[in-house]
């Protein structure tokens, strides 16, 4: 039987795991590997590409591929849709709109979304709950120049994230994760003590080269983002 | 000129961005696309595979590919080697070993690394500094049953992360990110107030199906993990 790209990938991984190919060492060329495995060069190429994407090897056009000195370079975290995240745990999802207003963008937001002075934004504060317990606090700002339909949209029954997904089919984003201390309002909404350390995710979303929305999601106390390889 | 996979990918992205292909809608089959673009099916396949990996489309063997309802499903964060992270910013990296001991694994660690009672571990507390300012606090535990050479290793001049990379060529990990409050020791090491919210990264590393090391990295106050698409 001919070796599939999976066979080749797993054989190479084995060589690296067992230390036959040491970190930093040169890996045989694709033509040579294709001969070794008796397979097409494209098959070897796919195996090598996946090993490179997973951070196991490093490919260089001129000097060939090497086993990476630092095996892990990236961590991928799932970004769940909150309703699904809660319902997949068998809990009841509930949404509450805390505040809704149309305002001139404050200066910090103008800087972040590259907005002109006087730009109108829709500002929403919402709470996502699991079995009645606060799960996530959402502070959302939407650029009305780019998404004027957000002016009339009704966010009393479901959150702006789901609505935005139906409006923006593809978007580029910047995501930041940091730790913040609960202020009085967050403490009241998330049912914790003021000053408690909370994990915060911020997202700025670009659509057709303009910034369309910024959101600050503050997770419940003790929340962990976890990923496995 | 023949369309490259990049041309095809960008043309399809354009159709989705402009709303010609709406979220949830069916995308023409690969054979049909190959005809449209006058290119090989393998070329179309590569474009589609990358769009799927980036979470733009959803591929199903039987029912064909669709534009995803939820464009973004994952966030990838770079995990830098701390020395490089600091030096790439033009700052001077300095390392300090705060504590080094060989102890029986405490119960919480045994649970985490699946260790037998009485297992010996090497425990290290280190500090990574940038231009003399504390940058990251490392609390590291190494399973001596699996890595006995860690008993004699010298960590006075450089940290265990770099050493481990030379010992473990490939490994599976679990990564968790959370917010924690500085206790007295962390506050003293990271030069901040007790109770200050800090971003914490925990990693458990598996090697050949056994847990080899657990580390708790606490970042300096105000640290953000950021990724862009």
Structure description:
The structure is a homodimer of 229-residue chains. By secondary structure, chain A is an alpha+beta fold. Chain A has two domains: 5-67, Winged helix-like DNA-binding domain superfamily/Winged helix DNA-binding domain (Arc Repressor Mutant, subunit A); 82-219, Chorismate lyase-like (Chorismate lyase, 3-Layer(aba) Sandwich), CATH 3.40.1410. Chain A is built from seven helices and ten strands. A six-stranded antiparallel sheet of chain A has the order 4-5-6-9-8-7. In chain A, helix 1 (5-17) crosses helix 3 (41-53) and helix 2 (30-37) packs across helix 3. The longest helix of chain A has 13 residues, at 5-17. Chain A starts with a helix and ends with a strand. Strand 7 (172-181) of chain A pairs antiparallel with strand 10 of chain B, so a sheet runs across the interface.
């Amino acid at each position: 039987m001919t070796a599939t790209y999976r066979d080749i990938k797993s054989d190479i991984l084995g060589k690296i795991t067992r230390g036959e190919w040491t970190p930093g060492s040169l890996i045989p060329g694709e033509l040579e590997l294709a001969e070794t495995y008796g397979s097409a060069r494209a098959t070897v190429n796919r195996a090598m590409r996946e090993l490179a994407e997973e951070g196991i090897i490093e490919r260089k056009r001129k000097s060939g591929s090497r086993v990476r000195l630092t095996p892990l370079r990236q961590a991928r975290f799932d970004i769940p849709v909150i309703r699904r995240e809660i319902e997949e745990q068998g809990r009841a999802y509930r949404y509450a709109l805390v505040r809704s207003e149309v305002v001139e963008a404050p200066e910090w937001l103008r800087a972040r979304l590259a907005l002109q002075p006087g730009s109108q934004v829709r500002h929403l504060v919402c709470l996502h709950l699991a079995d009645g317990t606060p799960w996530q606090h959402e502070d959302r700002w939407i650029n009305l120049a780019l998404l004027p339909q957000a002016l009339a949209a009704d966010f009393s029954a479901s959150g702006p994230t789901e609505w935005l997904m139906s409006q923006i089919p593809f978007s580029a984003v910047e995501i930041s994760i940091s730790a913040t201390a609960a202020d009085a309002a967050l403490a009241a909404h998330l049912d914790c003590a003021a000053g408690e350390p909370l994990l915060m995710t911020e997202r700025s979303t670009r659509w057709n080269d303009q910034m369309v929305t910024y959101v600050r999601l503050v997770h419940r106390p003790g929340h962990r983002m976890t990923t496995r390889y």
